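Q: Got a minute? One more chain.
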Amino acid sequence: MCLALSNAANPVLLVAGTVATAVGTLLIAPLALQTAARAVARFPVAVRLPMRDLARYRARSGVALAAVSLTLGIPAAIVVTSTAAEASRPPGNLSARQLLIWTRDPSQPEGVSPYYTEDPNDEGFSPYLPRLTGRDLEDMAGEAERIADTLDAAVTPLELVTDTQAEQTPEGRLAVTLAQPTADGSLDVAPLFVASAELLDAYGIDPASVEAGPAVLTIPKLGERLPAEARRMLVSDDLYFSNTSQRPRPVGAVRSLVPRYSSLPGSLVTPQGARARAWRPVPVGWLIEAAAPIHSEGIGRAREIAADAGMLVEARREEPSLVTLRWGATAVGLVVALGVLAAMAGLLRYESASDLRTLAATGASSGIRRTLSAATCGSLALLGAVIGTAGAYLGLAAGYVGDLGQLVPVPVIHLLTLVLGIPAVAALAGWLVSGRQPPSIGRQSLDG
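A: Always. Here it is, folded:
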């Protein structure tokens, strides 16, 4: 209840809920041991005996089970939350099969792309078109085709639009942009690309479906792509056309694009819309898309060709994986749980020494002793893994009660390793280390 009420933000309720979960684990452990002892009533005596002892000495075994449950509950929570966090990440700047080749000249910002990027180390996009001649653009287009040929990939030209009637600035001709109002004017938030059929296909849109609709297509909340300082300047989400021959004017109706990869052009104008406003398309780059992921060798070769031609290459920026964290948490849980189990198994074996002497007197082999130890360690580990994983999921579900979708997908492999793999390792370890009969068990003790 405390975790549900905390809304993942109230530290007092979070601490209270976490403590309550730990106390609940301590209270449920003895009941779980009694239930397990009844469940194995029809099992062989080598399995029934250790389960009976666990239930008989539940003051100690309950504490051990609670320790194992908490020990395995922590990595279970880490595995679940890290998997959900990784799945909820944005798709990234590009897919592994894509490259962006950008034209540029020395007056434009350094970085991955002078036109559209979320790289925090970049200066942002530049609304100025590169000062390139028609021959320069033809040569660059040829090099882009060469890159595509080396990667066996398709090429999609990327074109910005410029208002031919707008006055050219001393710094060069400006591309038409979408702008949002600020307290003292407007701020460019995205350059306007031509919505070619290939580019629409990258967004999963049928080109025929946009002919009768709004001329402008854009992803929502363009201002969120700006640096924090620029976002603070905005006063509304209204969109205006900027860098045209007229004063900034409202865009009007737009069609929303479902956000895909962040470096794909996210604001488009249909060819018909551009012609109706006397805007001229200007090539500024090419989207390279291969049938299979492009490996580092291909990216390196593309960068070499592009650099010689004065162009930039943007490839997928890999996000750090959390797989290592998940397996590390699982391994730490295994080691700590085995330590707790080893101490508990030794204590229970000492307290059940008379039972072991009786078994030895009736001719029980070392295999029986191994089974006793394996059953003790394996059952404690299995019960602890089930209780710990269930407790972790219940606690996380309470914390994310407002949005349980954040706990999807379920990390099946890692949870199976915790719930089945660790008990199997514990049982095997108990089997391997308990074959030799201790001298204290081989002789009946004498009462003085």
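A: The chain has two domains: 2-89+322-435, 98-314.
Q: Perfect, thanks.
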